[in-house]
Amino acid sequence: DCDVIDFPDSTGSLYRNTIDFDTLEFNSALLSTGGAELYEDGTLGGSSIHSEVFAFEVLHRCEIAFLVLSESEIEYRDDAGKKTDMLVEIDLQPVGVSVTRAFHWPPEEPYTEEEAFELLSDKLLDVQLSAANAAESNPWDEAILHVIAYDSDYADRIEDASAKTHWR
Q: What is the pairing mode between strands 142-149 and 86-90?
């Protein structure tokens, strides 16, 4: 579903979509301008660039989000504090977007609701801390935690756990 995000929503919401790339390979030439900038800028560490680019592309194509600042461009009060992956604009609102992956090894073993709850609890706290850490030059009041799940079973566990997680 597209055009489903409505700010402000003080209780938090979960939106689920599915993307199946089948056998397609990543092609940076197909990215939006914002997706291409994210891809070129890279991350502050780790191996999450593709996850962040896919998260942005979904928001751009479904919610008409525009990239404001990439991870390396966002200014913070405390450089050692929590950070977010990108700052976008949706419906003229600045929105901090953090991206995480629901995955474990080996992937064929069941992903538990406990694992999903722990991931969501940790990452939702990080979302709040990064918003509080944002410098006055680039604040945001709204935030999105974009979870990329390994498959539909993993996504089901995330959805089950989200019902038991306090969003704010």
A: unpaired
pTM: 0.92
Does 168 score more than 60 pLDDT? no
Non-local (6+) Cβ contacts of 138 within 8 A are 68, 69, 74, 75, 87, 94
Contact 42, 49 (CB under 8 A): yes
Query: Which residues on neighbouring strands pair with residue 87, listed in sequence order?
Result: 69, 96
3-state secondary structure of 76: strand
C-alpha–C-alpha distance, residues 104 and 89, integer Å: 32
Residue 149 CA, distance from chain mean position: 11
For residues 140 and 17, the model is more confident at: 140
